[in-house]
Amino acid sequence: MDATLRIEAVPLLDGAAETVALGILSSLQPQNLRLRRAVRDLEAAAQHPRYPLLFDPQTAGGLLAGVPAERASACIAELRSLGYAAAEIIGHVEPRSEAEAPIAIDVRP
Question: Which of 17, 20, 25, 47 is deepest in the core (most CB within 10 A)?
Answer without folding.
Answer: 20
